[in-house]
Amino acid sequence: MRIGIIGFGNMGSAFGEGLKKSAEVVAFDTDASKKEKALEMGIGWAKDLEFLVANSDLLLLAVKPKDAGKVLENLRGKMEGKVLVSIVAGLSLKKIEELLGREKVIRCMPNLAVAVGKGAIAYVCNDLVEERDEENFKESFSKCGSLHKVEEGLMDAFTALAGSGPAFVMKFISALCLAGVREGFSYQQAMDIVLDTIEGTVLMLRTFGGHPEEWISKVASPSGTTIEGIKVLEERSFSGILMECIRETTNRCKQLG
Ligand SMILES: NC(=O)C1=CN([C@@H]2O[C@H](COP(=O)(O)OP(=O)(O)OC[C@H]3O[C@@H](n4cnc5c(N)ncnc54)[C@H](O)[C@@H]3O)[C@@H](O)[C@H]2O)C=CC1
Ligand SMILES: O=C(O)[C@@H]1CCC=N1
């Protein structure tokens, strides 16, 4: 399988790391300075878009929303039945087909954790994508994280929860680290403690299952320490704030469409 990455920025290069494990990967970017990083990663470099398309079986569109339209118009009539996978936030299958023409398209929403093979990746196929196309997609992209086939109507919410998710998790981690510093740890000590606690908590939930609120009751001893912290989170509407965060992120994604 030969995969051509259009746009070798944050996401294009992150995907390159995972996709090269099971496919021959070539990249193209209008910013030639990205070439060095691609070659260092063992990824080929195409001198132009036409060369990339001619030497790929599947194309990954990894440019910003503002740049996607002109790329798709440049690809029009050149796909030769190949699959286009778009990770552009808010860009619907319908809009892609308006720009590209009636071609095989998979709308995909990953997150940056594809860089370490632990991405959360949603996808939806248009009606022209055949079973073998989807299998080829899953074979390569499953090397970059967990795949979630979703209805296109949930893609904007997935973008908010998972696509933007690493930024919200990093904000949570940063706040806990600062809290640790406030109590007397160095920042590095606090980060080590926080990351161990989050990693252990995730593993506990994935290993034993159950509902997060059940786990909170296992940790919060009667009249103990934890419940004082939970009280602050409830009083300051921690859950409500996160719901609004995801709602506004989802709405912005809809606006991009
Ligand atoms: N950053 C993230 O965590 C996520 C981003 N996305 C989506 O991925 C897409 C890319 O995002 P990033 O990688 O963060 O952006 P980026 O700005 O880091 O990378 C985009 C790359 O596209 C290149 N480019 C621009 N016009 C081009 C053209 N005509 N032909 C070839 N290359 C061109 C730019 O030079 C740049 O290197 C966006 O549509 C974004 O919505 C999706 C999920 C997560
Ligand atoms: O912030 C953005 O628009 C992109 C899409 C999802 C994550 N980053």
TrEMBL record:
<feature type="binding site">
    <location>
        <begin position="6"/>
        <end position="11"/>
    </location>
    <ligand>
        <name>NADP(+)</name>
    </ligand>
</feature>
<dbReference type="Pfam" id="PF03807">
    <property type="entry name" value="F420_oxidored"/>
</dbReference>
<keyword id="KW-0521">NADP</keyword>
<comment type="pathway">
    <text>Amino-acid biosynthesis; L-proline biosynthesis; L-proline from L-glutamate 5-semialdehyde: step 1/1.</text>
</comment>
<dbReference type="GO" id="GO:0004735">
    <property type="term" value="F:pyrroline-5-carboxylate reductase activity"/>
</dbReference>
<dbReference type="InterPro" id="IPR008927">
    <property type="entry name" value="6-PGluconate_DH-like_C_sf"/>
</dbReference>
<keyword id="KW-0028">Amino-acid biosynthesis</keyword>
<comment type="similarity">
    <text>Belongs to the pyrroline-5-carboxylate reductase family.</text>
</comment>
<dbReference type="InterPro" id="IPR029036">
    <property type="entry name" value="P5CR_dimer"/>
</dbReference>
<keyword id="KW-0963">Cytoplasm</keyword>
<feature type="domain" description="Pyrroline-5-carboxylate reductase dimerisation">
    <location>
        <begin position="152"/>
        <end position="256"/>
    </location>
</feature>
<keyword id="KW-0641">Proline biosynthesis</keyword>
<feature type="domain" description="Pyrroline-5-carboxylate reductase catalytic N-terminal">
    <location>
        <begin position="2"/>
        <end position="90"/>
    </location>
</feature>
<comment type="function">
    <text>Catalyzes the reduction of 1-pyrroline-5-carboxylate (PCA) to L-proline.</text>
</comment>
<dbReference type="InterPro" id="IPR000304">
    <property type="entry name" value="Pyrroline-COOH_reductase"/>
</dbReference>
<dbReference type="GO" id="GO:0005737">
    <property type="term" value="C:cytoplasm"/>
</dbReference>
<dbReference type="Pfam" id="PF14748">
    <property type="entry name" value="P5CR_dimer"/>
</dbReference>
<dbReference type="InterPro" id="IPR036291">
    <property type="entry name" value="NAD(P)-bd_dom_sf"/>
</dbReference>
<dbReference type="GO" id="GO:0055129">
    <property type="term" value="P:L-proline biosynthetic process"/>
</dbReference>
<protein>
    <recommendedName>
        <fullName>Pyrroline-5-carboxylate reductase</fullName>
        <ecNumber>1.5.1.2</ecNumber>
    </recommendedName>
</protein>
<dbReference type="InterPro" id="IPR028939">
    <property type="entry name" value="P5C_Rdtase_cat_N"/>
</dbReference>
<keyword id="KW-0560">Oxidoreductase</keyword>
<feature type="binding site">
    <location>
        <begin position="62"/>
        <end position="65"/>
    </location>
    <ligand>
        <name>NADP(+)</name>
    </ligand>
</feature>
